[in-house]
Amino acid sequence: MKKTTFRTKWGAGILMLLTAFIASQMVYRSSIIRLHDQLLSAAAIAEQMHASEKFHSALHLMLMAATRYAETGNESLRTDFVRELDVARSALPVLGTRHGSNASGKLETDFEAYSLILGGVVSSPPGGADRSGLAHAQKLFDSTFFHFYSDLHLRHRADIEQAAQSAHRIQFWTEGLFFAQLGLTVLFSVVGLLYLERIIQAFLSDAERMAITDGLTGVFNRRYLDSALEEELGRTGRHGRSMTIAMIDIDHFKRFNDTKGHQAGDQLLRALTQVMRQNTRAEDRIARYGGEEFVVILPETALGAGVTAAEKLRSAIEQHFSDGAGPGGQVTVSIGVATFPEDGTSAEQLIARADERLYHAKADGRNRVVPAMIDASSVADRGTIARHTTPGA
Predict the structure, then answer these.
(1) Where are the domains of the chain?
(2) What's domain 222-388's architecture?
(3) Assigned CATH class of 2-189
(4) Per residue of the chain (393 residues), what is the pLDDT tens digit?
(5) Which of 134, 179, 313, 393 is surrounded by the fewest CB atoms within 10 Å?
């Protein structure tokens, strides 16, 4: 469940990051397209401004050439006029691209009229130029073209202001997106580190659990038993209290394995530990000692209470497997009990005493609890011992 939950959350996080990345790329693409359009617009404005300067300069030089020709009759001024006329005509199409068809048509019409008037002046024989057309040409230059240029400059200014506003918007969105991506990157980095820490902790926790847990039954293993027993003995000794251990062995387990098979034997061991868990306290610790042998540590438990707890386990196991699961028609256990400090003050001594009593339980017919031998003056404890050393009790 933990792995599934982690993968789901991590997958959702990656999906969010991918979505944010795609969204950012779309915004960046849109910004690049807008910047491209603005650059093209700026280039067109620059081209028009250059063309308008050429057109205006050419119109003025055409008027000057025609005026001076009418005054002097200098033939070279005709050449100057034709050259400036060609310059103005080359700039005219560029100027018309920023205006509607009506404005562009009027500009062309006015320009043709202007060219014809001045062309008539410079085409006249020297000294015989008709100066009356110059006044009309001057009027066209001062009014018609002036209005055109005023409108052109207003359009250019509007385009530049629009481009500036669009550039500010692009800057705002790109900067906002940048900081949002930066925040998401930091967020996912922190989350990633936290999840990585969880993975490491879970890995270490699993490794620690596997190091102290029996892989088949799920109870503690011999390694944990040794350290836990020493720890519990130290704590119990410091507080001057008692502690009991119960060593449990399945009766006729080899015969069970030979008859039912090793897989059935493994199932029996797992089922047995479940019964033991259900019939022990939360503070009691169950460990697999080896093979079909188990040890239960009973903290804060004196001899009488320890024998009662062991008998509860024996009886529960006998009742649970009363359906003929064993080779003899039933699965039973034999239990040896040892108590601190009566039977020893070290883990080795307690294990040895419990193992001896387990051996006596086997020798006396199995399916019984053999406790520590105590002072015969304790009548209540003698009664307890007598009950639990009776076969079938």
Answers:
(1) 2-189, 222-388
(2) 2-Layer Sandwich (3.30)
(3) mainly alpha
(4) 444 565 676 677 677 777 777 877 777 777 778 777 777 777 777 777 777 788 888 888 988 988 888 888 888 988 999 999 999 888 887 776 555 545 567 778 888 888 888 888 888 887 666 677 888 888 887 876 677 767 777 777 777 787 778 777 777 877 877 787 788 778 877 877 787 777 777 777 777 778 899 999 999 999 999 999 999 999 999 999 999 999 999 999 999 998 889 999 999 999 999 999 999 999 999 999 999 999 999 999 999 999 999 999 999 999 998 876 555 458 999 999 999 999 999 999 999 999 999 999 999 999 999 986 543 333 344 344 444 444 443
(5) 179
Q: Look up the pTM and report it.
A: 0.52
- CA 148 remoteness from chain centre: 61
Paired with 290 in beta bridges are 293
